Amino acid sequence: MLRNPTLSENTKWRQNSVTVSGGNGRGNRSDHLYCPAGAIIDNEKDSLIICDYVNDRAVRWSPQNGESGETIISNIRCWELTMDDERNLYIVDFRAHDVRRYRMGENQGTVVAGGNGQGNRLDQLNNPRHIFVDRDQSVYVSDCSNHRVMKWMKGAKQGIVAAGVQDRGNRLGQLSNPRELFVDQSGSAYVVDQYNHRIMRWSQGAQQRSIIIGGNGQGSQSNQLYSPIDLTFDREGNIYVFDNENHRVQKFNIDRH
Q1: Measured between alpha carbons, how far is 212 from 191 in angstroms, rounded to an integer?
Q2: Count of C-beta atoms within a 10 Å radius of residue 90
Q3: Comparing C-alpha atoms, which of 184, 187, 209 is closest to residue 198?
């Protein structure tokens, strides 16, 4: 897991990079990657764990392995992954429409969200993309083609709707292809609402919702977004939005007044 480094405003980075995984063309050998879709840094093992999407595997690359990766999970259309405080690995299986939890060293995993086929019931997902796991090991899933965010509490047989109501749309209670999400300590969910070109905040229980960024139509002005796909926060609470079709990253400073 990535710990926040301490950086100054004068920090600079070398402009010539070093390949730490892949770099041998696309393919399925141990020294190949094929459309890697996501990764996390495992500081305890000094390694990267990568979603090797087209190769249907999760691989670990570490300095000890040299120029090859180690397949730690196979037969999974891995789109995104994360790790909880107990070092359990959670992986979105885009093809199986589920999320699975893996203890380190196991290859089968336990379904913790979805797992009942593609669909829109509360026990199903439809093209899940992104996940967030809180301290209680509840799993939040951006259920893209159902245009909702689902919350699956630990051990639950079905999820509850954490964001998005009724079908796809642009009303305040609706989402259109939700992507990246983040949940704060109060339980509020921040959701990238891709095709509505905005960032939404939903309070715990999905009863209150508000547009916090965008919502001014598709565009390239400073108060507009065009098909955003990701967001992140810095330590001060400023939000960075990956504004995909505008080919830019936008910073929105926190307003303390």
Answers
A1: 10
A2: 23
A3: 209
Length of the chain: 257
CA distances from 91 to 98, 111, 135, 215 (A): 9, 10, 17, 31
- Break the chain into its structural domains and give their ranges: 30-163, 179-256
Tell me which architecture the domain covering 179-256 has in CATH. Answer: Beta Barrel (2.40)
CA 112 to centroid of chain Cα atoms? 16
Nearest to 94 by CA among 77, 118, 113, 111: 77
d(CA 213, CA 112): 31
Amino acid identity of residue 161, one-letter, is V
Token pair for residue 95? Answer: 């093809």
Average pLDDT of adjacent 10-residue blocks, the chain of 257 residues = 61 80 91 91 89 94 83 93 94 95 90 96 96 95 96 95 89 93 91 96 79 95 95 90 93 81
Instruction: Give the C-alpha separation, 78 to 33, whole Å.
Output: 12
The domain defined by 30-163 folds into Neuraminidase (2.120.10)
Burial of 140 (0-12, 13-18, 19+ CB in 10 A): buried
Residues 14-54: tens digit of each pLDDT: 877 788 888 889 999 999 999 998 899 898 888 999 999 99
- The identity of residue 164, as a single letter, is G
